Amino acid sequence: MKRDRLRTLRVSRKKRRNASSIILLFALVSLVLSGLLTLANFSGTSAAGTMQLVRLNVTTDGGFVRIEITADGSFDDASVEHYSRGRQTVFRIRGAHSLLKQSYEINEVLAREVRTISGERNGEPYVDLVISLGEGATVAQKKSFNRLVIGVASDFARLRRPRVPAAGDVAKKSIESIAPHAVNSTALPARRESLAAAALIPGSTNIFPAVNYPIAEILATPALGPVPLLASSAPQALFRGRTIWNNFPGSSFQLSRFNTSGFLPMFFLPQNGTASASQPMSMSFIRTELDPPGALRGVWVPGTTASERDEVGGRVMGPGYLRPSIQLGAAYGDNYFYRSATGRNLGVFTLAPRIEYEIMGVERAMRLAYESRLRRLSNGNWVNGHTFDFDGRIDVTSSLRLALRNHFVRSPFDSREFDPAGEVYIFGDTFNRNDVGARAEYQLNDRSRLALDAAYNIVRWSEDHIAGAPLFIDYDDLSGGISYERDISEDTVATASFTFSKGITYAPLRPQFDGLGNNRRYHFQIGGRTQVSETSGMAFRIGYERDDFRNAPDANQFSGLTFDLRFRRNLTESTNFELSALRKTQVSAFNLEGGNARLLSTGGSARFETAQTENLKLALGVNYQQLGFPIAIVPGSTASGGIFIGQFAGERRKDHLYGFSLEAAYRFSDLLKTRLVYNFSRRDSTIPVFTFNRNRLSLVFEVGRRNEVKGRPF
C-alpha cells in the first residue's frame, strides 16, 4: 500500500507573498526583455553558408572517364558554369571552397589530368575544375544532390544507344566484372586557411533541443530521447571527410551547425609547409541527437558546442550574436508523483524565456545561454527553475587547444539532472547542480592527438525545500583522465582513455549515512568513430570499470563491462533511424539502511523519424532500461522520499523501465514552431510499490531563435 509519508512544508503567508512577488516580477522582466528582443530580431536572417568540396574520385571503364565531386551541401543550390578553352574544359562552381588536392592524374587517352583552382570574384568564392582532354573527347555533367558527376567519352551517343548483347558478350562481361574497376581515390587534404574561411557544415538540433531539456521532464518521458526534428532541420554531418546525410537543410532553417574542420583527420593536412600553421583539433563525431537512458545531462567534450561561424542568425551585439526565444507549453499526465509516493493526475503549464549569446571564431569561440523555467502545476503549486550553460575554447598555439564548459541547473522538477539513471520518480524538492569541465588537447603529429580532462560535478539539496525525507543525497564527483586518438584511416578514428574519479556523498537529515557512498572509480575504455556506409555512421566505447566503495558492504564493489554506443542511418532521404545504448554505474539513495551505495544501469533507445512535408515531421521512439541494486532490503529500509519498504526484507530491487513516444513537429516559420507529443512509460519492479504506468500528452510552442546545440559526448 502506498502512503504519503512526506510532511507538508509550511511557509508563512508573508514569506509566500514575498516569494510570489519576486517570481512574478522576475517573470515579467524576462517576458518584456525577451519580447522586445524577439520583435527586434524578426528581421534577422540566417547567415548563408558556403559549400565545401570534400572529395574527388576518378573512375575509368572501357573508354569512359567518370569524375565525381562530393560536397557538404547540395549542388542543386549551386551555380555550375561550363566553358572550354583549347584542349581544356573548365567547370566553375560558384559559392564554394575546396578541400581537394591541386592535381589528380588520370593518364587516359580521353583525359590526362584534373586540376583544382580556388579563387574569389566580387566577394564570392569559387572553385574551377580544369580537365585536360584528349583528341575527340566530349564531356557531360549531372547533378545528384551533393554530388557532381562529370563524364568524359569519345561518343556519348554511342554510350547511350541500347544494344542487345550477344551470348558471347554476356559471358565476356561476366568474366570482366569479377575484376574491380580502377579507382583513383585520394585522401582529402585540409588546409587551415580554407577551414578558417568556410569549413562549415550546416546541421540542426531539435526544434526544442536536448542539452538543457527545458520542458522535457514535463512534456516527454526522459528516457525517450529528444524531440523530433523538422523536415528541413535533421542533423547533418561530414564524417571523416564524407557527407553521410543526404538531406541537408535549406539556409532558411538552420538552427545549428557543425564545422567541417571538426570531422577531418589530422593526416589530411598537407605536408607542403602549411602544416606549421594553426591547425584545428580533431572533433570527429557523428551528429546524433538521441541520448541513451542514464546519460549525464548537460555534459559534453569541452569546446565542441562553440562554433566557428554563425548559421542561425540573431541580433548583432558586439563581436557576437544575441538570440532571445520563448517556449510556452502545457502537459497533462495521469501519474505525477509531486512530493508524494501516491501518483495523481496533474497538469503542468510552462513558460521558459531564454537568452543566448555566442561569439564565433576559428581559433577562439564562446557560447553561453540562460533559461528561466516557470512552471505552474494544476494543484496551484509553482516548480520554477533556472539553467545556465557556458562553453568556450581557444587555440593557444598551432598544436594546443584549451577548452572549458559549465552546466548549472536549479530546479525542483528535472530529476534526471541529479539522478541520470532514473532511480527517483518523485519530484518537488529543490536541488542545485553545477558541472564544470576543462580539457587540454595537444596534437602529437598529423594523425595523433593527446588530451587531458578534468571535471567536477556537485549536487546539493536546498534544506528550505526538503521534506521529512529527502529525495536523494548530496554528492561531489571529481574526475581526471587522459585520452589518445589516432586516425586509422580516412573513415575511422580509434580512441583509448583512462579516467579516475573520486566521489564523496552526504545524506541530508541523516548524518549517520554520510560517507556511505564515498567511492573511487577506475575506468579504462577503447573505442572509435567510423563511417559505416555513405548514409550511416557510428561512435562507440567499450571498457572495464572498477569501483571501490570503502565505507559500504563488499557487495557494492563493482568490476565489469561498460559501454556507450551511438548509431545513425538514413533509410531514405526523408527517413532516418537512430540507436543509442549505455551501461554505467551510479551512486544511489535507495536502502541506505541496508548499506546500498550504488546501482547499475543498462539501457537503450531507438528512434524513427520521417518528413511528411517540408515543414512537418513525425517520429516514433522506444526505450528500455534496467536498474539493478546489489544490496537486499532490511526491515528498516526506506527509499527516495521516505517510502518505507521494510515489509519486503530479503528482496533485492530490480527495475525495468520501458516505453514509447509518438511525436509530431511543425514549422510555421523560422521563428515559430510547435510540437505535439504523446508518450507512455512503465516501471516494473521486484518491489511492488515501485510499479506504475504513466501516460502524458503535451503541446509546446517556440518563438524566436535558439542554438542549443548538443556537444560531442566523447
* Annotated CATH architecture of the largest domain: Beta Barrel
The pLDDT mean sits at 77
Number of H/I helices: 6
Shape: elongated
Q: What is the distance, rounded to the nearest whole angstrom, between the alpha carbons of the first and last residues?
A: 44 Å
How is the biggest beta sheet arranged? 18 strands, antiparallel, barrel
Task: Indicate the radius of gyration in whole angstroms.
Answer: 28 Å
Strand proportion, as a percent range, falls in: over 45%
The CATH class of the largest domain turns out to be Mainly Beta
**Helical percent range?**
under 10%
Total strands: the figure is 34
Low-confidence stretches: 1-17, 31-48, 157-286
What is the count of structural domains? 2
Classification by helices and strands = mainly beta
At the third CATH level, what is the topology name of the largest domain?
Maltoporin, Chain A
How would you characterize this protein structure?
This protein is mainly beta and 714 residues long. The chain has 2 domains: 13-33 and 195-704, Maltoporin, Chain A, CATH 2.40.170; 52-160, Immunoglobulin-like. The chain has helices at residues 13-41, 156-160, 167-176, 192-198, 216-219, 415-418; strands at 51-60, 64-71, 80-85, 88-94, 96-98, 103-105, 111-121, 124-133, 138-144, 147-153, 182-185, 201-203, 238-239, 242-243, 256-258, 315-317, 320-336, 344-359, 364-377, 385-395, 400-411, 431-443, 448-461, 474-487, 492-506, 519-533, 536-548, 558-570, 575-587, 598-611, 616-628, 654-669, 672-685, 692-704. β16 and β17 form a beta hairpin. It is elongated, with a radius of gyration of 28 Å.
